Every structure is written in structure tokens, then in C-alpha cells.
Amino acid sequence: MLVKTKAIVLSSIKFQEKSLIVKCFTQSNGLKSYFVRDAFSGRKSNQKIAYFQPLSILEIEAVHKNKGTLENFKEIKTAIPFQSIHSDIFKSTMVLFISEILHHSIHEEEKNEALFTFLETALLWLDTHNEIANFHLILLLETTKYLGFYPDVSDRDMPFFEMTEGVFTPFHGMSSLTEHETNLFKKLIDLKFDNDQKIFHVIERQILLKILIDYYSFHLDGFKKPKSVEVLKEVFA
Fold first, then answer.
1. Is the pTM of this model over 0.90?
2. How far, in Å, CA of 16 to CA of 11, rounded?
């Protein structure tokens, strides 16, 4: 079936000497993996590879056989040319980390247009703003709404957050955050992209980052801690 859709690049892996396997989150069909033959050969190879930087937003025409095998692109073009995301060290480190998280979090080959729209809107915001210190934290928390495990905030006046159930409780259990961690988490829940980015200190952001990665681990089978998290900590130290 020939499909025209937008797609967000989650990962690209070199295959043999000249080819790529590219995993995308598509607007029309959810997660899809594509084989790009001869990505590293010919005069236009640099242009080809440039399409597949982390979280690039593409307009693609592709043949989807929907048999669980690698699909093939017929045409690719950039849907939204980013101005700063891939050239700014802070933003490029952040998108590398986010793409790794999404790569380990999105598993469904089915349409999730609400998640696609949210990610597209968030990336456009990142590309056009400079105060971005909390962007990855807000995005990771908001993404849980679309993956089905956003925290239940109905009892948020309680002093502890229980990670496995995703609820606030009056008691400190085995998988609960401390009272200090819970207060930081509550502040994050209230945060929007346009809020003051200096609301957290570096150490507080690192605490929240660990909380979010642990939270994903509790709720997603097979979730792996992203390798790029240490690079992220170094850049934002």
C-alpha cells in the first residue's frame, strides 16, 4: 500500500557498509521501520543521511506491506526544516536523549495522531526558543498521557508519590518517592514549556530526570535506560 504521511525519525542504524535501517513514528501508522539502500554511497549520500537525524520531521511517500518486515521509502523530503535543533549543542543533545527514550517507549504499529501532534508541536517550540533547560522533563512527563500512564493527580495534596501505581498517597511505601522528591515532581506536573526555566536547580533537574526514567521503567515492559543520559547530564551540568 502506498502511503503519504509525516514521520518523526526515532533512530537510524547503519546496516552493512552502505545502507541504513530507520525507525520512524508516522502520523498515519504509528511505528514503522524502513530500509534505506545505498545511504552511504553516491554524490548525494550526505543529503540522504541528513534526513535521518534524531527527531527530524519528514514528509514521506512509502510502500507499506504491513507484514512485520522493513518497509521502503519512495520519496522523502523535510516537512519542517529546523533552524537550531541540530546545530545547537544543548538542543541536539536533548533531542538525542528524547529520541532514545521514544525509541524504547513507542512500540505500536497503529495510529496515535494525538501523540504525533504533541511531539511535532513540542519540537517546533524547542526549535524557536532558547530557554529550554526543563524541556526534556516536561516532554517526558506529558508523553505519559499518550502512552497511558500519566500520574493520577486527584490526591496530589498527599505527601508521597507511589511510582508503580502512579498515585499520590499518605504513606511512604517501597516504591514511593521521598517527600522532597514528591514536591519536585508536583512542581514539574504544573510546568508548561513557556514557564520560567530557572524554577529548578541543576541538581533538582537531575533528580527529576532519574525519577522520570525510573517511572518509565516501572510502566513500560523492556524499557532501557538511555545511553545518552550521561551526555545530557554533562552538557546541562
1. yes
2. 16
Integer Cα distance of 38 and 99 in angstroms? 24
Length of the chain: 237
Tens place of pLDDT per residue across the chain (237 aa): 889 999 999 999 888 878 889 999 999 999 999 998 877 766 555 557 788 999 999 999 998 887 777 998 999 999 999 999 999 999 999 999 999 999 999 988 889 999 999 999 999 999 999 999 999 999 999 999 999 999 999 999 999 999 999 999 999 999 999 999 999 999 999 999 998 778 999 999 999 999 999 999 999 998 988 989 888 888 776
- SS3 percent helix, strand, coil of the chain, rounded to 5, is 35, 20, 40
